[in-house]
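Q: You know discrete backbone vocabularies at least as well as I do. I have my own habits and do not want them to colour yours. No explanation is needed for now; the record alone will do.
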Amino acid sequence: MKLIPQISLAFDGQCEAAFRFYERCLDGSITYMQTWGESPMAARAPEGWSGKIAHATLEVGDTAFLGSDVPANVYKKAQGFSIILQMDDPAAERVFNALAEKASVDMPLQQTYWARRFATFVDQFGISWSINCE
């Protein structure tokens, strides 16, 4: 069995802003973005949500991040996981500085006993990240 995990992120109305931010920070490309109003589920979208994102795809290298805005009665804040970016050292500082904008930094990018560079933080959209450079 070969698994190819994908990352799917739920937001409380900030999906477009988050994905545009991640696109810039990670040098990715948004390859798909559809609002609730444009989707086949437009009639079932919560009131005022026609401009919110029903589905988005951000491609970064070989990885795809999926995302959507989830109505308040369904949305649960992300917890209990972290997106770990395994990268080479030169890219780590740029990516950390970009993603950590307005973030809550738990551990700044630094050398550890297991890695040349490591950092953990929760970004401005509530998503937990780690950067690891072995």
The helical segments are 15-25, 89-99. The chain has two helices and eight strands. The mean pLDDT is 93.
